[in-house]
Amino acid sequence: MTQTESSLSNDTSSTRQDVDIETSEKGPHVEAHPESRILSPVSETEYPEGGREAWLVVVGGWFGLFCTFGLVTCVGVFLEYYQTGPLVDYSPSGISWITSLQVFFQVGGSAVWGRVYDSYGPRWLLLIGAPVYVLGIMMLSLSTQYYQILLSQALLSSMGSGAVFTASLTSTTSWFRKKRGTVFGIVNSGSSAGGIILPIMLSRFFMTIGFGWTLRVVGFMFLAFMAISCVLIKSRTPPKPRPFALSDYQRCFKEPIMLLTMLGGFLFFWGMFLPLNYIIIQAKASGISSDLVPYLLPLINGISLIGRLTAGALADLIGQFNCMLIITAFTGILTLVLWIPGSQSTGAIMAYAVAFGYGSGGYVSIFPGCVGQISPIEEIGTRIGLASLVNAFGALTGSPLGVHPSGGIMAQTKALAGSNVRRSRLAPFSIQFLKYQQNPDHENSSLLSLFPASYCSDSYDLVSPDGHLATCIMKELDIERLSRIQRWLWIAGSPVPARPLHSQIWKDREIVITEDMDMHLVWTTGKIFIKPLPRFLLEPAVWTDFLCCSENCDCSTGADGEMQDCEQRKLHKVALGFLYSYAALIRHESDLLLAKERFLLPNDNIRWSDWTTFIRQLDTEHIYPDINPRFYHKELQLSRLDYIYYFIQGNPAGFARRWHRSSTFLKANLGWITATTVYIVVVLTSMQVGLATEALGRDHAFQSASYGLTIFSILGPLICAGLVVVLSVCILVYDASQILVKVNRRLDHFGGQPGHGRNQDE
């Protein structure tokens, strides 16, 4: 277990910042490694979120993606031409290395171009990349040998297209925050538009004007389109030239969130380009009409256009990683269900083309936003570029390794493509949990060290968590008493975030430690109860093993036709809501200092830069569907919870009894008792004076009122005393009944042998 306590303070995490700042009021100051500079992410108030300049950048990016990734998505047309034309003597696997290397250098080159972007902005990338890209296409139009095609298409043109691709995709990040998913979808739709138009154009022109002139036409068209990109694309933030530092890349591999995001991208790209490269060849081998085959890639890319736009908008609503989970699971499952068993069916291939087009388009649209969400704005180019390089290794190896020597696609490879696309969802799924950092003892000790020494079971035994971690977690996260009155919690506290710790001190509330989750953020006169942040909630293994839905649970299959939360999902919502409450409690650096002084955090060495990264990754703006509704509300007033239990639950003991002695009750209520007594005395004195006057002394109504109030003043205290006695008796009877139930249960549990109770199983 590597880093429960120190992960929030380790050196590698201190450089992580979420540029998709959705919850904070201003960007944080980030403390970086000693050898690196200090980063200052852009404040959320500085994002234009629109305007003429911002949308012109989007238009320029659209044309850039049309020319670069749009051509990559129709590499299947090139493979078909090479296998039946100039490279007919080469194996399909050998030919596929050309297109694989093209994708690798274009996408993977972003690791270099992204670093250039961070230092010098997009202008130089476009001015250099566009001519090099067009030169490579022109050289390809003259190529007839394998090595010539490899050098021109896989190396020269992809180097230039990689620079244009990086500038077009990355430049929008500094202009948009809340709309970033939608904007990425719009920009990436340019590649889908290219994937619709270019395959048809290439197929027709290859047969009419030949390979060479087709590419020259494409080259001149790209030159015009990329000229538009050069004019429109610019970065809002000024570039900050700095020397090359290998540590900029190394930090990414030390951050679990970034590492797993890149791993997910690698797996997806490993399986993604196999259908794009070979669906045309497979369709021909399956006997699909030759008139229909040229339209398969345009169909995929046409549907991917819808996927890119809708997935981007959906990501803005539910979060980047949540949307990624849905897209990757959808694509992987349909690859396994449609592509493998339906390889000889025209209908199945067409259906798969539609499904894969939507899923792959959505993934390409969302992935940069996922990386941007966990990256500082000053390093956005470097990090997106590095992630693209890792993706490129998947694209490089997936297609050549999956081709059968005869030219077909091995069934095992199809299954691997589907499983890899589906497995890529593990990265965003794990990231949802790794947002809570790592435990430093993960590899050296057991999870047991993160839990309490013991807990009280339902049979009132003290049980060690060893072997009963699931039950212990249920006890630690138990809010059953609040769940019973969920619909009435608005009476005890407004549905707004809790006040920060410094406001609690300002309200003269003493912070009292509680280990009961249902007493967390409950306040009474002069005090507020707060549960310290448990160490086990900072351990990813706990989330994945105990707070994660299992397969075929009620969450996924539903019960009686209705979707329900399984027990793990319910606990997950409580745990995530608890972390959300800490996001509200610790909003400023002064709050962090107060939390350390009150021992609310498991580590005194947590730095402010680490905390801001930790909290922002919770995505608090979109967190509400994923947390228990109890945490919608701010601090809950204990007296009102008692009244809810008195009058709605019918429980005479209330929610949490605060008075165990009469003197304590009188002290707590002395104010209103004194005020009532003084008021009655003043009224009686006034009436006595009034009766002495001639006018009021003869007024029959005034005399009746004086008489009634006098009787009330005499009988009122007696009635109140009687009610107190009756209430005390009711409470005594209730307590006695509860005690007898517990005693009988314990005696039955002991079986006549006290001290030998059995532990409760999970």
Explain briefly what this protein structure is.
The chain is mainly α and 762 residues long. The chain has 30 helices and six strands.
Summarize this structure as a short list of keywords or feature phrases.
762 residues; mainly alpha; Growth Hormone, Chain: A; 3 domains; 6 strands; 2% strand; elongated; DUF6601; Proton-linked_MCT; MFS_trans_sf; transmembrane helix; transmembrane transporter activity
Give your account of this protein's structure.
The protein is built from 30 helices and 6 strands. It has 762 residues and is an all-alpha fold. It folds into 3 domains: 65-434, Growth Hormone, Chain: A (Up-down Bundle), CATH 1.20.1250.20; 462-649, no CATH class; 662-750, no CATH class. The strands form 2 sheets. It has a 4-stranded mixed β-sheet. Strands 1-2 form a two-stranded antiparallel sheet. Residues 1-45, 402-445, 557-561 and 752-762 have low confidence and may be disordered.
pLDDT < 50 runs, ≥5 residues:
1-45, 402-445, 557-561, 752-762
Computed CA radius of gyration, to the nearest angstrom = 34 Å
Q: Any idea what the shape is?
A: elongated
Count every beta strand, where a strand is a DSSP E run of 2 or more residues.
Answer: 6
- Using the coordinates shown, work out and report the CATH topology of the largest domain: Growth Hormone, Chain: A
Counting H and I runs of at least 4 residues, what is the number of helices?
A: 30
Per CATH, which architecture of the largest domain? Up-down Bundle
Mean pLDDT: 73
Strand content is under 5%
Distance between the termini: 23 Å
How many domains make up the 3D coordinates? 3
- What's the name of the CATH homologous superfamily of the largest domain? MFS general substrate transporter like domains
Quick one: CATH class of the largest domain?
Mainly Alpha
Major beta sheet, specifics? 4 strands, mixed
Binned, the helix content reads: 55-70%
| Strand-pairing-aware structural class | mainly alpha
The strand order across the widest sheet is 3-5-4-6
